[in-house]
Design brief:
Shape: globular
Number of helices: 10
Bound molecules: zinc ion
Largest sheet: 7 strands, mixed
CATH architecture: 4-Layer Sandwich
Strand content: 15-25%
Structural class: alpha/beta
CATH topology: Metallo-beta-lactamase, Chain A
CATH superfamily: Ribonuclease Z/Hydroxyacylglutathione hydrolase-like
Length: 321
């Protein structure tokens, strides 16, 4: 379904089959030049959905803005970019998006997770089952990198780039101050809490994320357009909820940790999760991965604030109170 959310701005809900996220919102801004914000996975279902939106709007050519490196946001960039398209992303995530093509990125991500306590898979690589890898774009992208404060003009809008590291290291939002509209990607979501996870080159993603929430809280926003779920009525209320959620999670992690050395995987196993599974053993492997990523970001935050200790043993991090 294609929905008009403001003058010349349309939402296309793109299905993400067999994925807990279920859907992504791609946004299309029309005018003398068009802009597509985020694309869906590199899978035919996503491609068909976007194609139908383009047909409905009579669009042949579009520029693209990619909020961040996750494959549900950038998987179809090579398919929807034409020779005349300008493709925007932050330099940090743009570089990682190109690094995701091929094996090296996924091997390094696997090794990073093992270092942070995720068990080595009995067969092959953990990242082989990662949905981000399965439905990743298959070609490098010639990005035009955007930096904080850059302005992109589409339709009657003047969108300023606001960098919001946390969900990914180079996550970027678009903000029109006059119209009070913010495209926030996965930085703020209504129905779920954005996953905060370790990434190559990052050590304290939760600190980055909380700083970015505080940054967005200062903007005057009336229409918040998120990449998953319905638009959020009260951005400021939702930011407060997300801040509270992470405070509570930090307390829970402290309690679960106790004063025995534990890996992030052991902590994740003992945390509470809203998932339709009997117990930890019943979690699908990708969900164990995301849960461990969440535990890592909270443990690292506590470690950097001096509340817990960290020790490296045989190349693996252990934490305790
Ligand atoms: Zn994401």
């Amino acid at each position: 379904m294609l929905t008009k959310v403001a003058d010349n701005i349309y939402t296309k809900v793109v299905p993400l089959p067999n994925n807990p996220l279920r859907e992504i919102n791609s946004y299309i801004i029309t005018g003398s030049k068009n802009l597509l914000i985020d694309t869906g996975f590199n899978r035919p279902e996503c491609e068909e959905a976007l194609m139908s939106a383009f047909t409905e709007l009579g669009i042949v050519n579009t520029d693209l803005f990619i909020t961040h490196l996750h494959s549900d946001h950038c998987g179809l960039v090579p398919k929807f970019a034409t020779k005349s398209s300008t493709i925007f992303a932050s330099e940090t995530d743009g570089e990682l998006i190109n690094f995701e093509v091929g094996n090296l990125y996924w091997r390094m991500l696997d090794d990073l997770f093992i270092k942070y306590g995720f068990p080595k898979a009995a067969f092959g690589r953990n990242t082989d089952i990662h949905p981000g890898r399965k439905y990743c774009h298959d070609a490098r992208v010639d990005f035009t990198y955007v930096a904080e404060g850059d302005v992109l003009k589409y339709g009657d809008y003047e969108f300023e780039v606001v960098l919001t590291p946390g969900h990914t290291p180079g996550h970027a939002c678009l903000y029109d101050a006059k119209k009070k509209i913010l495209f926030c990607g996965d930085h703020i979501l209504g129905t779920i809490t954005p996953n905060i996870c370790i990434e190559l080159g990052v050590e304290n993603p939760l600190k980055d994320y909380l700083d970015s929430l505080a940054k967005i809280e200062k903007l005057d926003v009336q229409l918040l357009l998120t990449a998953h779920g319905t638009p959020i009525e009260d951005m400021y209320g939702r930011i407060k909820e997300l801040q509270k959620h992470h405070e509570e999670r930090l307390e829970e992690v402290m309690q679960v940790l106790g004063n025995q050395w534990k890996t992030s995987y052991m902590v994740a196993r003992d945390m509470t999760w809203e998932i339709d599974c009997k117990d930890w053993d019943d979690f699908p492997q990708p969900q164990k991965w995301f849960a461990t990523g969440e535990a890592i970001s909270h443990l690292q935050y506590l470690f950097f604030t001096g509340k817990i200790a960290r020790e490296e043993n045989n190349g693996i991090y252990y934490y305790k109170k």
